[in-house]
Design brief:
- It is a single chain.
- By secondary structure, this protein is of the alpha/beta class.
- The protein contains nine helices and 14 strands.
- The strands form three sheets. It has a six-stranded mixed sheet with strand order 1-2-3-4-5-6, with helices on one face. It has a six-stranded mixed sheet with strand order 7-8-9-10-13-14.
- The N and C termini lie far apart (about 40 Å).
Length: about 250
């Protein structure tokens, strides 16, 4: 049985640790020390490191982890990295026999131009592309690219669990409610998240099904969101661009 554990890092990052028996894989280790501590605590051997994009809070711990382990490193072919790694591109399949899992790669430009995600029927590790009730800032890509990437994620199995890499959910929900104040699912989710965070528990994973009901960036065709977006037209891209700009300053 695969176990998936969030390792908190920095102020609001999660490094995802996947382990089966005594083998482990980590995703986006921005800091090595909490990973090393988790491996030692659980008596695990690190077999692989998966990277979604080049931002330092996702790769800052890779060099030290390579020094301390024999882990293989996988990263997007669309970006440059200083450490030794195997490159991955759209539709590649990565096999991780130590934890008895395989993932397909999806190229999702928007947050960065080379951002990728790892997914299978059960799980999506989407880095900073999709957040619960939100999406990543556009540091390199265009609104059109990000919207296209998000619309691809909307097509995944609704039961797919969404493992993003930041604890932004409470703020994202507060913003989403400015666009859909009468969304009952969103209101209920806010109460659940407040309870989880009051106990210092993570608000994620979410699911694709839940995000389709609460995430404004996946719901740009909703009339209420358009009306509250300040967009000049109901065009999906216009609404997305408008609410992404509003979220930037929220």
């Amino acid at each position: 049985m695969l176990h998936i554990i969030p390792i908190p890092a920095f102020d609001d990052n999660y490094i995802w640790l996947l382990h089966h028996k005594n083998h482990a894989v980590v995703i986006d280790p921005g800091d090595a020390q909490p990973v090393i501590e988790a491996l030692e605590k659980n008596n695990l051997k690190l077999s692989a490191i998966l990277i979604t994009h080049h931002h330092h809070d996702h790769i800052g711990g890779v060099a030290k982890l390579i020094e301390h382990t024999s882990a293989r490193v996988y990263a997007p072919t669309y970006e440059n990295f200083d450490f030794k790694h195997s490159v991955l591109a759209e539709n590649d399949i990565i096999h991780l026999p130590e934890i008895n899992e395989s993932f397909r790669v999806m190229w999702l430009p928007g947050h960065t131009l080379g951002h990728i995600a790892y997914y299978n029927k059960q799980s999506l590790f989407c880095g900073d592309t999709l957040f619960s009730a939100g999406c990543g800032r556009l540091f390199e890509g265009t609104p059109e690219q990000m919207l296209q990437s998000l619309n691809r994620l909307k097509q995944l199995d609704p039961a797919t669990k969404v493992y993003c890499t930041h604890e932004y959910t409470a703020t994202n929900i507060a913003f989403a409610l400015t666009l859909e104040p009468d969304n009952e699912t969103l209101i209920a989710r806010q109460a659940i998240v407040q309870q989880l965070r009051s106990q210092q528990l993570p608000s994620i994973p979410s699911t694709i099904a839940l995000e389709l009901k609460i995430n404004p960036f996946l719901r740009c065709n909703q009339a209420t969101i358009w009306q509250n977006s300040q967009a000049k037209s109901r065009d999906e891209l216009a609404v997305f661009t408008a609410i992404r700009a509003l979220r930037n300053h929220y």
